[in-house]
Design brief:
Elements lengths: L2 H15 L21 H14 L7 H5 L4 H13 L1
Helix pairs in contact: 1-2, 1-4
Length: about 80
Amino acid sequence: MTENEIWKRVSAVFQEVFDNEDIVLTPETTAEDIEEWDSLTNIQLLIAIERAFSGLKFSTGQVANLKNVGDLVAAIDRHVSD
């Protein structure tokens, strides 16, 4: 899976979870950039992303180290490249 394919899938997950097809992600996107992104939505996002990328399971440490969407995509990329 290419990084571009990962971005497309992650974008689709965000649009579905937030029920907003206008969301455009960048590597620098954080919870501060999306008004509805709170701690509950963060959990929903992580679960939806784990489902979208079968076999992916984030540890608590991995989640704590995710500072933005770019970090999330990089973590997914490492998983799908293994």
